[in-house]
Amino acid sequence: xSCFQLQNVLGKTPELRFWHSRGAxxxxxxxxxxxxxxxxxxxxxxxxxxxxxxxxxxxxxxxxLIFGTRRATSFLLTDNSRFTDWPNNxxxxxxxxxxxxxxxxxxxxxxxxxxxQTPVNAKSGPRSQIQYQNWWEKxxxxxxxEEIAVDLGCLCxxxxxWWAAVIAQAWTATSVIHGGVYLSPWSVRISNNQxxxxxxxxxxxxxxxxxxPPSSDKALQFLQDLCVTYDIHDxxxxxxxxxxxxxxxxxxxxxxxxxxxxxNISPPGSTTKPQGFVHQSILEEYDxxxxxxxxxxxxxxxxALLGGPFFDQxxxxxxxxxxxxxxxxxxxxxxHQKLVAIMAKRxxxxxPLWLGAAILGLEKRVLQMARSGTPPVDLxxxxxxxxxxxxxxxxxxxxxxxxxxxxxxxxxxxxxxxSDHDKAPIxxxxxFGNTRICDTDIEVQGHIHCGHRLEYVGxxxxxxxxxxxxxxxxxxxxxxxxDWAIPQPILLEIPSRITLKSDVASKVATRxxxxxxxxxxxxxxxxxxxxHEWFDLGESDEELDSGGASDVEQEGVCERIKEWQxxxxxxxYLL
Length: 575
Known about the structure:
Layout: E1 19-22, E2 25-28, E3 31-34, E4 37-49, E5 59-68, E6 73-78, H1 98-115, E7 127-132, E8 148-151, H2 157-167, E9 171-177, E10 180-183, E11 188-190, E12 196-199, H3 216-230, H4 233-244, H5 246-249, E13 255-258, H6 277-284, H7 289-296, H8 299-307, H9 320-331, H10 336-346, H11 351-360, H12 363-372, H13 379-385, E14 404-406, H14 407-417, E15 434-436, H15 442-446, E16 453-461, E17 499-500, H16 504-517, H17 527-530, H18 541-544, E18 550-551, H19 555-568
Parallel strand pairs: 6-11, 6-13, 8-12
Antiparallel strand pairs: 1-2, 3-4, 4-5, 4-16, 7-9, 9-10, 14-15, 17-18
Helix pairs in contact: 1-3, 1-4, 3-6, 4-11, 8-13, 9-16, 9-19, 10-11
């Protein structure tokens, strides 16, 4: 199933490496503190392909990724959380280990974060460590109804103590950088005082101070053993997708997770691994962790990817509302499983991220941003995952005609050539119409026939002593869309008539892209656009929407919506 093929997300995602060696010289990542967060920086490199000889230099886009935080991400365990009833519980009806497994992945990612900071050929480095806290409580006889019993099966002492520390969040992964103490970006805590009762089939657990926290690969083996014991590999992979989204959640509010509901069936007394690809896939994720970590440390990029399914390269800024409103009239009536299936159909390789977002409730934030008309844009994440969520990264759309250039191509030329437009527009939707060539900037006129287009080359980390070498990324082969087919249909309630209730998304998108395009001033020929009521900042969105509902008449938009709706009927649940 596509929701559990997490490696398909990676594409050209670069590897997160703390130390970089070239010959006898070893350098490390550079860091910057901003608002209590620790950031590492780098740049994506783009080749400017063209149809002829041109002296325009390749493009370099700087970017920062989270590397450390001051506060752990906080969670609540509730019975009312989504995905409490996990699908495909074959022999273990009602079994749900998502929270436990996600916390285990948080430890594994944090341990890897500590390990990669250990100096290899360097004289000194940050003081980083992962350690157990003084958390142990002796057995008690209280049978509290709020207590969660977790049977871990047959475990050795170090595995049992590790699971106890994971479930109780009794571990910390820290690094001292620039005099500050930072937690790993995947640090977690449970805000409510939840009690757990851990059980295993071997002798009683007697923790020893001699037992050290396991390495990331050893901890992954412990996680694999539990997944084999209860045959919950699908939950194990979904939990990895969840953990990768923890930095995107941030630490400002509690996130609800399904209260663990363990199997009533006694686990086997052995953790012998069954044969087959599925049961081996969790261990195979280990070598991919540095790539997952890079993507995970780019929260804005993750949000941009999750908003990608709403993007269509043919939609112009002034018709965003009639494009989005029918879509939301459909998905507003969908449960979480159908929502994941719909988003996965639009961009199959990102299905695991959408599953993780739906479990965590992050989809509410994504839908809100998409509905507003200006979801986040992150060209780095789009290039890493071979997905598109902005018109600016597309090739020129049409040839020059009657001494005019499309405003979309004008934007692309400004972005590629203009020093005043070195950052990508925050609006993903292309502007409508054309501009007379004589009204464009000098930079645009000088390259208007070159056919420039962006081609991603790779990522380069900023290092203490020099610039790093270009990392071309994981380089997984893109899976064909036909390979993602799932035979069951999605049963959707599709409205027969499209009624537009609000123009807000169109107005916001139009303001956004024209504010970027005309940052240096408007040509006289565009006075009708500049004086349109949508650009009157004195009026509120509500005032502009007071005219009431209207039927959508844009023929091209209606056709695209019908294609979108028709496409959704092909595939079914992904779980």
